[in-house]
Design goal:
InterPro entries: Avidin-like_sf. Keywords: Signal. The structure is a single chain. With 82 residues, the chain is mainly β. It has one domain. The protein contains one helix and four strands, in the order H-E-E-E-E. Strands 1-2-3-4 form a four-stranded antiparallel beta sheet, with helices on one face. Strand 2 and strand 3 form a beta hairpin. The chain is elongated and about 40 Å long.
Length: 82
């Protein structure tokens, strides 16, 4: 859940504007400072629920766990332009 929380924190930079947030930007591999990864492979655009796999390099080498997360608030800025 820590990794999901960190991912949510990265997206908490809200912006005003008329653009819709593109959930496809979330489908990716996210890595934190501890080298844990969260591979997001699905996003529900209505509920902003994230689904994927979490991999931790400490104590569980090679093991993956199903992960579920949620985005509270997301920027509408286009990351390709920022």
């Amino acid at each position: 859940m820590l990794l999901v929380t960190l991912l949510g924190a990265m997206l908490l930079m809200g912006a005003s504007g008329s653009n819709q947030f593109r959930v496809d930007y979330l489908i990716n591999m996210w890595k934190n400072q501890l080298n844990s990864t969260f591979n997001v492979n699905g996003v529900n655009a209505t509920t902003m629920e994230l689904r994927g796999m979490h991999h931790s390099p400490s104590g569980t080498t090679g093991l993956g766990y199903s992960a579920l997360g949620h985005v509270n608030l997301a920027s509408t800025n286009d990351p390709d332009k920022d």
